[in-house]
Amino acid sequence: MATKRSTPQRGKPLSANGDPPAYPSNNRPAHNPNQPPSKPASTGLSRAAQCALEVQLMYSSRAANYDFEKGGWHATLGQDFVDWLTPIRPGAAILDLACGTGLVALPAARAAGPKGTVVGVDVTPEMLESARAKGTVGGMARVEWVLGDVSVDLMGLEAVGRVVRERGGAEEVGGLLEARGRVMVDVPTEDRTVQFLWYHVLRREVGLECLFDSRWIKGIGSLEDLFENAGLEVVRSRRVKSYVPESWNAKEEMWDVFEKNLAFDTSFAKGGKVQMARKLWPEIWKTGLREDGRLWNGQALYVTIGKKPQ
Ligand SMILES: C[S@@+](CC[C@H](N)C(=O)[O-])C[C@H]1O[C@@H](n2cnc3c(N)ncnc32)[C@H](O)[C@@H]1O
């Protein structure tokens, strides 16, 4: 399909402020990306149900404090997501998949105005509760919060990778778009940061494999390919700086970083996973080291906006 290539060009990502990323990506994969994922531990649940539980386990305990984590960066990013979609047409209908506490949906509702409609869908009841508790004020779009698993019920975006890529969600979302409608997706970059190693390598190694399979992301072009393969035209892509407060950690900080992540990611508590994780962490840590022997603790994103071809 002939589609217009967006700027920046594939393989030359820009950060939000136009600077190159603080550290270039380190191309030393710990695992063969072509290797099929290890089998999930047998729980008698369907994979979708198991994944929904894993997600809920991770977010239910965080819901009350989610908006304030690490200086409140989620809220800043949520507002920026909406700004990147500007102009949002007054009266627009907006679907926010994996809406969490509404940090994108609510600013979007302000932008769409009183004739607009916003529907936020999320699988974690506590996250939706926090969203609902915020209420709405005059001048905002009508907002509805829906409890649902977008990988099962809707085929949506979410922290997109698995859902969109493995299950044809991009085509489905494209099908939902109005003629002038747009779709925006964000994914983490392929940089081997602490976040990458924790969420995309360590979790998988201990059998917590449902979240964040981003091994298909090789650069800004991966998301663009996804859109184009789904029949969408890429409008714009950007590489966004880390909104998570960053640091560059030396070897001596390895266990401190481990404990902090563990305190945050409660999914490890079950089934002896902590012990397993402790054994694996030193080797996994090494795979992300930069030339200066430090590991980047941060998370840059690729964000792509697409639309239906005219
Ligand atoms: C990192 S939070 C993002 C929340 C919100 N989009 C934001 O930017 O603040 C991820 C959210 O995705 C939700 N989620 C993950 N997988 C989901 C799925 N399959 N269906 C619905 N929600 C999902 C989680 O419950 C969580 O609230």
UniProtKB/TrEMBL annotation:
Gene3D superfamilies: Vaccinia Virus protein VP39 (3.40.50.150). Residues 94-150 form the Methyltransferase domain. Residues 24-33 have a biased composition (Polar residues). Residues 1-46 are annotated as: Disordered. It holds the Pfam family Methyltransf_25. InterPro entries: Methyltransf_25, SAM-dependent_MTases_sf. This is Methyltransferase domain-containing protein.
